[in-house]
Every structure is written in structure tokens, then in C-alpha cells.
Amino acid sequence: MKIAFFEIKDWEKDYIKKRLKNHKLIFFKETVNESGVDSMKDVNIISVFIYSKVNKDVLNKLKKLKAVVTRSTGYDHIDLKECKKRKVKVYNVPNYGQNTVAEHTFALILSLSRRINRAYDRTTRGNFSFDDLEGFDIKDKTIGIIGMGSIGRHVARIANGFEMMVLAYDPYPNKVLEKNLNFKYSSLNNLLKNSDIVSLHCPYDKKSYHLINSRNINLMKKGALLINTARGGLVDTTALVKALSSGKLGGAGLDVLEEEGLIKEEAQLLSSKFPKERLKNLLEDHLLLTFGNVIITPHMAFYSTEALQRILDITIRNIECISKNKVCEAIVE
Ligand code: NAI
After folding, report:
1. Tell me, what's the pLDDT at 283?
2. DSSP characters for 112-130?
3. pLDDT single digits (tens) 196-213
4. Ligand 1, atom nearest to 95 Cα
5. What's the whole-model pTM score?
6. Strand pairing of 249-254 and 224-228?
7. Ligand 1, CB cutoff 6 Å, lining residues
8. Is the pLDDT score of 109 beyond 80?
9. What structural domains and CATH numbers belong to the chain?
10. CA–CA separation, 15 and 115 (whole Å)
């Protein structure tokens, strides 16, 4: 098979070359639109990221194309209708970072519960006093997980390991899961009232916009922590700032901020095409940065060596499936 990879980084190139030795591989730093597709009439598979627009124009030029393999979860950059017409299969990377994001969630929780950021800040300045750094145990505390999908489930598993009690809110409850993962489903309000730590793991859409807002944030326990590694728009920032200023909340761990609307796909943050200056400005402007009991990370919960490799491994598996004519889950059959 002749396979063309677009929007590829050097380390990815080396990794792929070692694993797809039996194919003719060509690599481009540019998108499929920027590179000269005209010279690739005999390419059988293209692997792209979200800045490559796989449209009618591109498909018309790639006469021998059998499959499009995107190294992303989302696939709205690919014209599925046009692919179907030409019997071109489309593959994506549906899950690559469930445990990765769940682990980052606990990194934020433990940093807040044991005042790690404040302690670190102090010791780097030569101050070894632990005045005001008293933390709290998370054992026997209740964590409320909003969204019991792949990431939420990993959070529940880790919470079980810490001997925490687990409440969950999800519009699509699964009773078997509830039993197996030792948690209790609850209404959103009940979860907010009874959790010491509330962690968001649901998608952001019109329905979940400001799921945590000025009305229901007041239901939360005094001193509770709010953790958001999902999407910034799930939390009304004004309500959060108010709850932190009044002491209603004990702290917040945020990997995502409300103004980050331009981010669709985590790996977008790694691309040279993503305007990182904008993210920096957002963070700098944010009032939340000034709170000692708030930890903000720059939307990096997905960012581990293993998760990045999983993206490539799933892409390679997809390509092997195609080349061996094996049944493999494709978006367009
Ligand atoms: P998933 O699709 O496996 O699970 C989402 C769960 O949320 C489902 O069980 C669904 O029924 C539930 N849900 C839907 N609407 C809800 C609502 N209004 N209230 C409560 N629950 C609701 O998704 P997954 O993989 O667990 O990811 C969750 C979110 O995490 C993603 O939508 C994404 O925004 C975010 N994410 C963040 C990353 C980061 O680096 N910070 C990396 C990957 C994902």
C-alpha cells in the first residue's frame, strides 16, 4: 500500500516508519490541502489531522484512495458523503485518553487537598514552614462525578482505590455499571449537595452550557472542591469566582476555561496551526489565576506520552486492518 501522512511531526514519523515497514510511506508536515496532492494519484491511504480538509476536490485527485485515517476523534473535516460515494472508508481514534484524563483529575484533586501548589511555591523561595498548609484526607470523602462515560468511569475506579464514596449523575444511567464500579446514581442537585469534591466529565453542548451556575453552585457543600477537566463552558465562571471569593467553595482545579471555545479536539493544542498566543492571553486575563486555592493547567489532561502513542497505535492498527482487508470499525463502510 502507498500511504501518505499529513500534518506529521518528526517523532511521529520515526514511530510510524518502524511499525509500517511493509508499505510505501510518504510524510508531509503540511495539510493535504497545502501539499501537492496532484502528484499522489497512486496513494491508497491518507492519514490526516483536523486541519486537513478532505473534501470533494481532494478526493477527486486521489483516484486510488481506499481509506482516510484521521488521527483525531472528531471527523467533521472529512466529507463523509463524498467518501461513501467513492467507497472510501473513514477511520478515527475514538478513545485514547480515558485513564490519562482521570489521572490528571486526581493530580488536581490531590494538589488541592494537600496544598501542593502553595507548598511548592513556598519551598522554592526557601520557606519550609507548613503554617496554613494543613490538608485533608480524601479517604471516606464523597466524590460526585458528572458524566459516567469512559473518563468518569476511570475516575470512579481510582476513587474506589482511595476508599472514597462515589455519587454519579448521568442522564443515561447504567445499573450494571453502578454495581460493578461501586457507586450510586443521584440527581444533579443531590450530587452537588452531598459531594466533597465535584468532578465534571460530560460533553459540552447546548444542553450542558453552564451546567454549574449561580443557582446550583450554592447547593454545594461549604468548602467543597470543583474540578473541571471536561470543557470550560460547563461552568459559569462568574458564579465560580463568586463562590470562591465568598468561601463557599474550598478550591477549584481547572484544566479548561470558559473562553476556550475554539478548542474542539485536544490534539489541536499540539498543532503548530493552533494560535497558542490566544490561549496564553486567555490565561493571563483570567481572574481565577489570582486565587491561592485554584489550580489551573493549560488544557493538558490528555497530554501523556502513552496517550499520544495510543493515537498513533490506533492509527497504525486502522491502517493494518485496511491493508489486510480485516473487519475493523470504520465510520463509513
Ligand atoms: P463519553 O462520551 O465517554 O462520556 C460522557 C458521559 O457524559 C456519557 O455517559 C453521557 O451520557 C454523559 N452526559 C451527557 N450529557 C450529560 C449531562 N448534561 N450531564 C451529565 N452527564 C452527561 O466522554 P468521555 O470520553 O468520558 O469525555 C468526557 C469529556 O471530557 C469530553 O466531552 C471532553 O470534553 C472532555 N475531555 C477533556 C480532555 C482534556 O484534555 N481536558 C481530553 C478528553 C476529553
Report:
1. 66
2. HHTTHHHHHHHHHTT----
3. 999 999 999 899 999 999
4. 25
5. 0.90
6. parallel
7. 97, 101, 146-152, 169-172, 201-204, 207-208, 211, 229-231, 255-256, 266, 299, 301-302
8. yes
9. 2-96+306-323 (3.40.50.720), 98-303 (3.40.50.720)
10. 39
